[in-house]
Amino acid sequence: SMDSTLHYIHSDSDLSTNSSFSPEEERKSKVQDVVPQALLDQYLSMTDPSRAQTVDTEIAKHCAYSLPGVALTLGRQNWHCLKDTYETLASDMQWKVRRTLAFSIHELAVILGDQLTAGDLVPVFNGFLKDLDEVRIGVLKHLHDFLKLLHVDKRREYLYQLQEFLVTDNSRNWRFRAELAEQLILLLDLYSARDIYDYLRPIAFSLCADKVSSVRWISYKLVSEMVKKLYMASTSTLVVDLMSELVEKFCRCHKWSGRQTFVFVCQTISEDDCLPMDQFA
């Protein structure tokens, strides 16, 4: 019955009315010479939504899990064989399938290279950024790994979206904000001093005032690294402005917790040698 179904799907009359590709073009787009073609065809057929529902509801998740390995085996020159399947999985109704892809998109970007990443993965990545928290955490945990592979101009576009990671479906999800602070420390190397001051500084100060101490502790490290980065930049006025804001916002805070934050940030700055002592004083 499978043969007759496949024969019907690939019949000339059906494809000529419903597809912009001829049967020959459709077949060629999935052909490669790295592994037996029948094996690849079998893998690609597993992502068919109707089959996944009737055979095994978990099958799409397994396909998503193994997709980077398949892409690595086939090589970037054969990405055209997998592109449609990847997009199908990235829009799967099950969030677990999308989550699996979100956790591995940075690995796939390394395999595909910058051109294919910019054209085919960035749109999927942008979709994951707006997804459920369970999916967003996948791209957040490897945010630095993915953004460092993009061109500078494309990378700067994400500066405007980093603020959105402070908003979660569940405000008690503090690990999400802790992960954001960890990633921002890594992202300092990817952006200019002006971009750090304009876009990352407000997020860092917000995290320093978080209700959960684990988030605050990572944020103290983030602010100290920010001070170090701005001091080493040629535009030294930015670090003075940053320290002035630290004094104003935390040292002179009417809440004791704010003043305590100032002390902890000072401790981290001095311990990590982020500033010369005369500048610190």
Automatic annotation (TrEMBL):
Region (Disordered): 1-30
Keywords tagged on the record: Repeat
InterPro entries xrefs: ARM-like, ARM-type_fold, PP2A_Regulatory_Subunit_A
Cellular component per GO, a single term: cytoplasm
One function term, GO molecular function aspect: protein phosphatase regulator activity
PANTHER family per UniProt: SERINE/THREONINE-PROTEIN PHOSPHATASE PP2A 65 KDA REGULATORY SUBUNIT, SERINE_THREONINE-PROTEIN PHOSPHATASE 4 REGULATORY SUBUNIT 1
Protein name, as recorded: PP4R1 phosphatase
